[in-house]
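Hey L., structure's done. Input below.
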Amino acid sequence: MENLNTVFYMTICLTYLNSALDPLIYYYSIPTFKNMCRRALHLGRASDTGEDTTQRPKSQEQSTHSTNRYDIP
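Output:
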């Protein structure tokens, strides 16, 4: 019975370890996930790939431009 109890607790430990390691594995293996995490933590975009996976549509890029009347055209 003690062996069964040990196996049970080992299984629980492995389950928690899996839950803790999954985000790290996703972070280092999926560039889109990395960029989403960095954006959520306000760290900026990861630049280890040459392409931008978080491109905004043109309409959003134009709407973020300042329309202050003192801007030089």
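DSSP finds three helices and no strands in the chain. The longest helix spans residues 2-29.

-- N.
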